[in-house]
């Protein structure tokens, strides 16, 4: 049986930066412009996946110039482990109907794809006019189910990251750049 180790939380300041605040801002601005062009003359509904996508959504929404409303969903998380049980459970559903709306699901990281393929299936049952996916980060090498995002901030290798909404055991979400979480941290 695997031994369990209490997680430790090294300071973010000591972790290597993968993307700076400025690089993130530039990329999110470009995504906002792309989305605004793609949806010119239309309204959109941005559905953020709590909690990780909250910060990306708040920046992306302000980089979008077409009319946009927000909603949020929450799903069961991995906890502090990066292993996926494969089971995704809805904890919070959307508040407002999305039938005939142009919906963009907004996520922090597209990893195995289990979360977003589950959510996509769920949202499609509501018969939106269109459904696209925006993710801040994409780890294509980790995919267990076939799913791609329509809007990707950055594609990254199989490395665990924190900051800009992304956590390790709920910590580091408020770190304003994206950093590499040290692999040798106990509890990781
Ligand atoms: P998946 O695509 O279903 O595997 O789930 C993606 C979710 O796993 C993301 O929304 C994150 O919450 C979490 N996740 C995956 N990789 C990382 C990482 O490197 N740092 C923090 N959270 C991660
Ligand atoms: Mg998440």
From TrEMBL:
Give the Gene Ontology MF terms in alphabetical order: guanine phosphoribosyltransferase activity; hypoxanthine phosphoribosyltransferase activity; magnesium ion binding; nucleotide binding
CDD domains listed in its UniProt record? PRTases_typeI (cd06223)
UniProt pathway annotation: Purine metabolism; IMP biosynthesis via salvage pathway; IMP from hypoxanthine: step 1/1
> How is this protein named in the record?
Hypoxanthine phosphoribosyltransferase
Give the Phosphoribosyltransferase domain ranges. Answer: 20-168
Question: What's one Pfam family here?
Answer: Pribosyltran
GO BP terms: namely: GMP salvage; guanine salvage; hypoxanthine metabolic process; IMP salvage; purine ribonucleoside salvage
Assigned keywords, A-Z: Cytoplasm, Glycosyltransferase, Magnesium, Metal-binding, Nucleotide-binding, Purine salvage, Transferase
Annotated family: Belongs to the purine/pyrimidine phosphoribosyltransferase family.
Give an example GO cellular component term for this record.
cytosol
Q: Domain of life of the organism in this record?
A: Bacteria
* Record-listed E.C. numbers: 2.4.2.8
């Amino acid at each position: 049986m695997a031994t369990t180790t209490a997680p430790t939380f090294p300071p973010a300041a000591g972790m290597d930066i993968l993307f700076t605040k400025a690089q993130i801002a530039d990329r999110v601005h470009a995504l906002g412009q792309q989305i605004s062009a793609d949806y010119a003359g239309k309204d959109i509904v941005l559905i953020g996946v709590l909690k990780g996508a909250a910060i990306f959504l708040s920046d992306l929404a302000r980089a979008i110039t077409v009319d946009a409303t927000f909603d949020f969903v929450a799903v069961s998380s991995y906890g502090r482990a990066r292993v996926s049980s494969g089971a995704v459970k809805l904890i919070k559903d959307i508040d407002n109907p999305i039938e005939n709306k142009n919906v963009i699901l907004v996520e922090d990281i597209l990893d195995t794809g289990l979360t977003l393929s589950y959510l996509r299936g769920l949202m499609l049952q509501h018969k939106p006019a269109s459904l696209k996916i925006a993710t801040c980060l994409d780890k294509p090498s980790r995919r267990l189910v076939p799913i791609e995002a329509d809007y990707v901030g950055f594609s990254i290798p199989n490395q665990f990251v924190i900051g800009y909404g992304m956590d390790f055991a709920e910590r580091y979400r408020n770190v304003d750049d994206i950093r590499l979480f040290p692999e040798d941290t106990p509890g990781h």
